[in-house]
Amino acid sequence: MGNISKLSAVLIGLILGASLVACDDGSAGAQDAAKQLASAVSALDVGSVAFDGKDSGAAHEQLHEVFTALDPVKPAVENGELTLEKDTATVPLNYTWKIGSGEWKYTTSAVLKKSGDRWLTVWNPATLVPGLAAGEILGTLSQSPARAEILGAGDAKLVTYRPVVNVGIDKPLLASADPAASATQLARLVGVDPAAYTQQVQAAGPEAFVAAITLREDGRTITDDQISGIPGARAIRDSLPLAPTRTFARALLGSAAEANAEQIEKSGGTLKAGDTTGTGGLQQQYDAQLRGSNGTQVYAEKAGLTAEERQTLLNGGRRVLFQTDMKVGTLLRTTLDPNLQQLAEDILAKVGPASAIVALRPSSGAVLAAASGPGSNGYDTALLGQYAPGSIFKIVDSLAMIRNGITPDSSVECPATLTVDGRTFKNAEGYPASSLGSVTLRDAFAHSCNTAFINARESVSQAQLEAAATSLGVAVEAPTLGAGAFLGSVPGDATGTEHAASMIGQGKVLMSPLAAAIMAGSVAKGSPVSPQLVVNPGAGEAAADAAASPSAGPTASGIAPASSAPAPAKTSGTPVTAAEAAALADMMRAVVTSGHTGFLASVPGAPVAAKTGTAEFGSENPPQTHAWIVAVHGDLAVAVFVEEGGLGATVSGPLLKEFLTAAG
């Protein structure tokens, strides 16, 4: 019985196998060939595809010639349901191209023929593009909109098209002149590297214009006569989206220029050669909104047209296959006051180290100035800097102490030195002896007694410090700002010397100049300030929200850390009340009336209230210091920061006075 069963199983297997073979119509191999073709065309590489009567290499070259105008974009190609008729299979190929802001979708038909045990693809240009004939390729025509403006307060034009001249060597104008000699002469005239520019001129084609520099028309000192006096040199007039000056709010606004090869490659087809795009700052963050989108046309043309024939074709009569309409960009409104921004930059122009001045309006949160000095080397110190705030953080300490029942008139102890877990803390050099011992909180605040605030560490927990900071609008996110910013970081847990250091704005406590201005502004407003810089985020809104969390930036050393800063609290603590803010404002006013910023008493207008800060950093002996000062003056809150600045009162203080006096 066992042998009969085995024999029966074998017979059944043979019968079933024969049935399967009989039912196999060959579609499996054709389907595999169709999938391979779709995948190869998606990669624009058909070198491995077997063709019927055509060399694979030649087919690959022709495919590339057809699609060169769309480079670097590649299509997504999927094969559809196959139709089989004897040894011929037909399969639809569904194409999707991302062309600028649009999608070009179409379906073609590919024919496969069986040769022996293989399925070969029949070469046909119409398999690539519907109706494409032999000898035809694709061409493109692109129309770019003008870049939208960036406006400031009162719709002042911060970035708009301004006249420029592109200065360079136009090689057809050289005639018999030596290209190297002209290039060297022009490079020296405009101040670029002669060797590098000469190399560019020599490497360029005989019809090329090789730009050496782009100069603003307004205020340029190099004249047309000087340029034209050099054989082959010329100035071509143009316009570019520019700020009022080369340095105006550069770190904040960024810049816009012709897209480079790397930007074009990373854009995934959104950018093409000749397009203008933003780099850094708001120009990059809101690039899509400001740039709009190109109008793009894809058409068929014969390969090998002369320039004249192509121009005739472009003037009319071309067979258009796909097009997207040009969309103009949307302007970006900001709260930046051009006069205050320029004032801040002029004041910082003489400061060597990294520095910043931030001014905002407490009533609305509008950021009026966010200037980073030349020592910041292009970094946005004003919004992104991460530094120990030093004694300006005593505003936060004081709020936490007030919430624990202390008043500005309460007595606190201010010894000359204080030791915590073996670490000795002392007051700043020159601290008045008359304000040592038992003094009011107001006096300790006015003279910035470190030991008095460190003494309060036992009654003020680290968690209370963190809560007080968020109550004043710092160490939180800034969803309404519309720009990348760091609003501070205060650890919620710290003990021993770290907690003691937090009480004087050191340890792991970090702030940016923007955060410092917000903190002071919240005191003036009587409630937390929600800062705003960008009024209509539009297309950049998602980017703005993402950028509102802190970015990696210079820390105490001024060097960007390898990883991001500590994440700020997601939500604010109990908002500061009007009564709490009034007590803080009273103590900040005492810094001017009886403390060490008496020089601010002469600032005209509303009374000035302030707080200075000096934060030690680094390992030098004596250590280097950050110099801070914050102030409120009517409906204006200002923070001034100098990275390597000595004492806040003596270094940042005069800069603040100059700003407040001129701001009016």
From TrEMBL:
Residues 144-301 form the Penicillin-binding protein dimerisation domain. Residues 1-22 form the signal peptide. It holds the Pfam family PBP_dimer. Residues 545-573 are annotated as: Disordered. It is found in: Membrane. It comes from the Bacteria. Residues 356-660 form the Penicillin-binding protein transpeptidase domain. InterPro entries: Beta-lactam/transpept, Beta-lactam/transpept-like, PBP_dimer, PBP_dimer_sf, PCN-bd_Tpept. The keyword Disulfide bond does not apply. SUPFAM superfamilies: beta-lactamase/transpeptidase-like, Penicillin binding protein dimerisation domain. Keywords: Cell cycle, Cell division, Membrane, Signal. GO terms for biological process: cell division. Belongs to the transpeptidase family. This is Cell division protein FtsI/penicillin-binding protein 2. It comes from Arthrobacter ginsengisoli.
